[in-house]
Amino acid sequence: MTSAWRKQALGTWLDTWDPQYCGTFDADAERAQQVTAAASARHRRPVTLYHLVLKAVATAVTRFPEVNHTLRFGRAVPHAGIPLACLTYVRGSEPGAAELQKYVLADLHRKSLGEIARADLAAQLRIHRGRDPVRERRRRLLRALPAPTTHFALRALDFLSCKCGLGLGFLGFPAEIQGAGIVNNLTQFNIEGLSACIMPSSRAPFLLSVTAVQPRPVPRDGRIEIRPVLRIFATFDHRLVDGYTACLFGDGIRRLIEDPEVLAETSPPTAGAGDRP
Amino acid sequence: MTQKCLGFLEQAIREVQPGAADGRALSREMTLDALGLSSLKTIRLVTHIEERLKIHLDEEDLVTAETLGDFCEIVEAALAKGPRG
What we know:
Chain A has 277 residues and is of the alpha+beta class. Helices cover 36% and strands 24% of the residues of chain A. Chain A has helices at residues 4-12, 30-43, 49-63, 113-128, 133-144, 147-163, 243-258; strands spanning 20-28, 69-72, 75-78, 83-90, 99-106, 181-186, 206-211, 214-220, 223-237. In chain A, strands 1, 4, 5, 6, 7, 8 and 9 form a seven-stranded mixed beta sheet that branches. In chain A, strands 2-3 form a two-stranded antiparallel sheet. In chain A, helix 1 packs across helix 5, helix 3 (49-63) crosses helix 4 and helix 3 crosses helix 7. Chain A is globular and about 60 Å long. The model of chain A has no long low-confidence stretch (mean pLDDT 86). By secondary structure, chain B is mostly helical. Helices cover 64% and strands 0% of the residues of chain B. Chain B has five helices and no strands. Chain B has helices at 2-16, 32-35, 39-53, 59-64, 68-81. In chain B, helix 1 packs across helix 3 and helix 1 packs across helix 5 (68-81). Chains A and B meet through helix 2 and helix 4 of A and helix 3 and helix 4 of B.
């Protein structure tokens, strides 16, 4: 059986000639772990490092708004708010039927870590229990498309929903879920990392893969120390984000994770860690 | 009913997360954070309960639940509504 995700992938990519580049940045996670533990106790629900990273990314986007754009007819168009797309893998009932599903959480820089944890759980509950009508329509449409037509159908849907900004929710392709930067949660896997590529139809300016905290050797004051390190693999669309901005943006996220007390507050962080130099 | 519900929940939680709460007995006052359930395991727990009891758990209530007692009340409310169609 071919899943809807696999059909979408095969119908999208004809070659590997695309303007993407990758990078990695490490953040010392000791204080972030303390902040999430305190937030979990305060909000009486599991608040994870992934939730803190989501807030750090949204906050960094406010400081580097050029990464908050999508492409339409060759022009970089800014988003109205700060949408971030998250991915969740829905297990299928039979082999090959698992689906990669995307959901968008908006303006997380304005939310508390507890609110982010709640919003994340609510979105995942809707998707995993099949109660998100738009995604169910998308899944049914992709499964129903004959394989040879998938590429052309996806091109047409991409043109209408992303380039023209038409809401095709009735087909499962609403305009608002395209174009958001993606923050992928890989913290449950015991892997060194994964440099992912951006699917063209996502129109995402960046894709960040957040891996689990690992003990790693880090130079500190002329000595090597073993520190808890959160490693993030980043992929950027070069048409939207140049290398200079990507470096500043990545470093801004790193500094927010290493100085996370500002993220623990409910109100949006003002000046401080992660600011534009 | 509540004790029965708590017992059922404990069994379901241990199936999803065998080492939940470090093996300690679960109580109504225990917070969801203390169980150490990730969002994916929480989803698995919800699906497991819904399939076993043939009920629909209210999503808005689920995301605001803080303790096992809150969770029990959601399950009992769904049971009172009757089985899903």
